[in-house]
Amino acid sequence: MSANSISHPDPFRSLFKQIWWVVLLRGILAVLFGVIALVWPGITVWALVVVFAVYAIVDGVVLAAQSVRDRATLDGWGWWLAMGVVSVVAGLLALFWPAITALALLYLIAFYAIMFGITGIVGGMRFRKVPESGWLWSVIAGVVAVLFGLILLIFPGEGILGLIVVLGIYAILFGVLLIVMAFQVRNSAKKAGIL
Question: Which residues cross the membrane (predicted)?
Answer without folding.
Answer: 20-40, 46-65, 77-97, 103-123, 135-155, 161-183
